[in-house]
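Hi V.,

You were right to ask for the full record rather than a summary. Here it is.
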Amino acid sequence: MYQRSTRIRVKLDLARMTTNDKLTQAWRVHDGLKDNPAYSDPPVDPEDLMNQANTLVLARVAAEDGGKQAIAEKRHAEKTLGNMLRDLARYVESKCKEDMQTFLSSGFFPVSNTRVTTPPRSETIRKVSHGEISGEAVIRLVNDPEAFSYELRWAEWDGHNEPAAEAWTFRPVTTTRPATVISGLTRGQTYVFEVRGVRDFGYTNWAGRVSWTSL
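Predicted structure:
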């Protein structure tokens, strides 16, 4: 008997999303679509999406002074980012072939009546979110049952080149809960984060690189 398939829909309510919501969604989609073989021909290049998100970050900073021109530029940057996300959402819906794992790898969330567990950003970092103040990152690590503790490192990143050895900042992390809070980051700057575990034999390799832009 024929059964009509159910198309997976992207949850993207731009009218209700805050600027932070749109930026976070854009960074997730950038990481999900970049070099993803399931989505080889997106209508918006992931790097263009990242660049537009960074443009919005800078425009928002400029608009804090209340200037009319700066506010108008911020609104335009936010609208452009929203249009990019909308185009990519439609693309992902058509390319995921109704496979949930393929869909989730895009960085988008599905519309669903049931709760969907958000996949970790990487094998070592569950989530990176913005803190209560500007320049603050909240890092949630993935639990490694064989690790006694962890070490987190981060560095400024230009989106292309490997950070120099001396550019990294290191912090020991004793447990995955509560989340680790990093302060004093530069607003509008993109960073990369990596984690390694401390086990019986010593340190594991650095792994799970995640990129993130400070607000």
